[in-house]
């Protein structure tokens, strides 16, 4: 993990938040490369979960919602973790994280365990009074449930269908840590997939496999992924069944994503609290009923961290060791780097034309400083799949070299065919001249 944290900091993926003020515990800022990586993770999820399917539509709900939402969902009463305080240094801990009944920081005596609500509270409007309390959402899911009827009426979708959303969530976690694994502000990628009661068990199994395949399709090593079914005594109050997709993080196997059968719990609660019947009318059987829902819920930062860890390698390169991120091309911040062998104007003019051309389709880097070997290393370290090297010979024969990040193989291609060849390589399709 230390190597990932250091690479992420050094190359501009992830910085501690408000660093010039000493940082803010468990808050992170995504730098020029991190923001691209994170956007690519979200884009890959959206494509796989929404655009590639005709049974899922998207949504972008407000972060601050009516406070009654969180009463109906059970978050006001029950979204809490048990917590103990150290009587000496005042540090707070989750009892489940402690090996011994004393403070891990100072060895001090601990208080009795009490429940601590994880929702961030604030006030809406100019007056700070109880009537104006609102919450920052602790999950994106409720924004979907309260819009169930709106989406149903405007899209005329038939069961089974899903509503997907990506957005920020906030939890005042008692203990954070392991870099971006658990923070207080994070993004979730959630799908609520509505089905007829009775079809829910099979649907949970289907979504579990579909989600596992998403990570594998994006190049994650299957040996670092596993599914874990929740025991009945660890199921959330709303859930009938649940799987965790776990990743073999440096600190051990930990949850990457949860896939739960939430039954009709949320729609039933919102029907009760809002007075609106959130039902579905089945035109074939002429029945009104509340659908069941299967929820795959993934974290953007956790996936990003897992993709980074999984991609990281230190490999022999001639007499040295190179650091390389074997990121899937869909996730890599830069897809291509254009590297002119010299800074001479005649060569850089030519290379810049190629750069401008490739940028129309992809995120492309341009680097003309230091030796070509060092430039390849720099691109390997940030996961750029292909480098295009432009040399003086290129000016004469109109050909450039493509260098492959993973195999380090080099091929010479015509500039006129460069875009098509790179498109084929980046998509994994064969190229026919
Ligand atoms: P954990 O037990 O690890 O805190 P959880 O079971 O509370 O997670 P869920 O409520 O199932 O998490 O949320 C779904 C997903 O959202 C998680 O699998 C994770 O990827 C992400 N997530 C939840 N809490 C956090 C957090 N504090 N920081 C980063 N990601 C989070």
UniProtKB/TrEMBL annotation:
It catalyses: tRNA(Gly) + glycine + ATP = glycyl-tRNA(Gly) + AMP + diphosphate. One of its GO terms (biological process) is glycyl-tRNA aminoacylation. One of its GO terms (molecular function) is bis(5'-nucleosyl)-tetraphosphatase (asymmetrical) activity. InterPro entries: aa-tRNA-synt_IIb (IPR002314), aa-tRNA-synth_II (IPR006195), aa-tRNA-synth_II/BPL/LPL (IPR045864), Anticodon-bd (IPR004154), Anticodon-bd_dom_sf (IPR036621), Gly-tRNA_synthase/POLG2 (IPR027031), Gly_tRNA_ligase_bac (IPR022961), GlyRS-like_core (IPR033731). Its main location: cytoplasm. It is found in: Cytoplasm. Its EC number is 6.1.1.14. Keywords: Aminoacyl-tRNA synthetase, ATP-binding, Cytoplasm, Ligase, Nucleotide-binding, Protein biosynthesis. GO terms for cellular component: cytosol; extracellular exosome; microvesicle. It is an enzyme of class 6 (ligase). ATP binds at residues 171-173, 181-186, 255-256, 299-302. Substrate binds at residues 94, 139, 186-190, 295-299. Residues 2-333 form the Aminoacyl-transfer RNA synthetases class-II family profile domain. HAMAP family: Gly_tRNA_synth_B. Homodimer. Catalyzes the attachment of glycine to tRNA(Gly). Belongs to the class-II aminoacyl-tRNA synthetase family. This is Glycine--tRNA ligase.
